[in-house]
Amino acid sequence: MRSLSQQLLNGIFIGSVYALFALGYTLVFGVLDVLNLAHSAVFMLGAVSAYSLVAIHGVPLVPAAVIAIVGTGLVGLVIELVALRPLRRRRAPPSAALISTIGLGLILVSVVEQSRGGGAFAWLWRDGANSVRFPPGSVPEGSLRLLGLDIPAPKLVIVVVTVVLMGVLAVVLRRTRWGRAVRAVAENPRAAELLGIPVDRLVAGTVVVSSALAGLAGLLFGMAIGDISPYIGRDQVELRGLAVIVLGGMGSIPGTVVAGFVLGLVEVVSLEAFGTNVRAGVAFAVLFAMLVLRPQGLLGSRTADRV
């Protein structure tokens, strides 16, 4: 029983990572109606850049985290200027944005791969290792004991940060001028532009925020799981992030967070019941069932409300 309870806690922790990662997907999809498939590479960069600053350059964790989050936000700006805005101005179909962001994501992964061999980006990596973790003592290692269960500090931070960010994002989108402008652009970009809303600037800000969230999710994942490599975005969260936004309801921020926790819990329960080999299969079976029974997702609506 204690083992199952501990596994459920682990499901909440990994679900928080899925939710935080997928919030960025949802934010961009809600405004642009496209999926930024370079998002998983930005997730990876958040973990790798924070690791390199701490482990190789001796920067304390908090400043390294701030630099990593700001850096991934700037990568988001590059994604908008290089891979999204030119296509949007040519009125290219959404599939063009998918292809361009896939290509940019592959370039980012290749840059980090090259750094393992001591190339031009060797400052990112050390010893050519396939997978690394933060040095002992650089990440808080304490735990909170609650109801007989040990809750590691990094994993507790993930849950708290995800819930707080969801609340902040919901308030910002509903109660601030910027949030109202985002919703106006999501509803009708042309009408928003005629009303004087700077659409390009607002979209750029949205992609920057989305990428900063991905970088934060990657950093927290690296702290809690201790498995940092050039492939963590692709292997650990990319498909699950897509599953989360569909499961929660395309464009629904509360739905994304709820679905992240649901998917995390389903995965650990299936792991406990059936073993590692069917973990992902069971999770996506639940997704398939949701698409059949409720295509709009857990908290989505048939009218496809955005953000």
Characterization of the model:
The protein is mainly α. The protein has a domain of 205 residues. The chain is 72% helix and 3% strand. The protein is built from eleven helices and two strands. The N and C termini lie far apart (39 Å). The mean pLDDT is 82.
> How many helices does DSSP assign?
11
- Radius of gyration in whole Å, from Cα? 19 Å
Q: Approximately how much beta-strand content do the residues carry?
A: under 5%
Q: Quaternary state, please?
A: single chain
Whole-number average pLDDT?
A: 82
- Largest sheet descriptor: 2 strands, antiparallel
- Described by the principal axes of the CA atoms, the overall outline is globular
List low-confidence stretches.
none
Q: Give the N-to-C terminal Cα separation.
A: 39 Å
Number of strands: 2
Helical content stands at over 70%
Element string (H = helix, E = strand)? HHHHEEHHHHHHH
By secondary-structure content and strand pairing, the structural class works out as mainly alpha
Major sheet strand order: 1-2
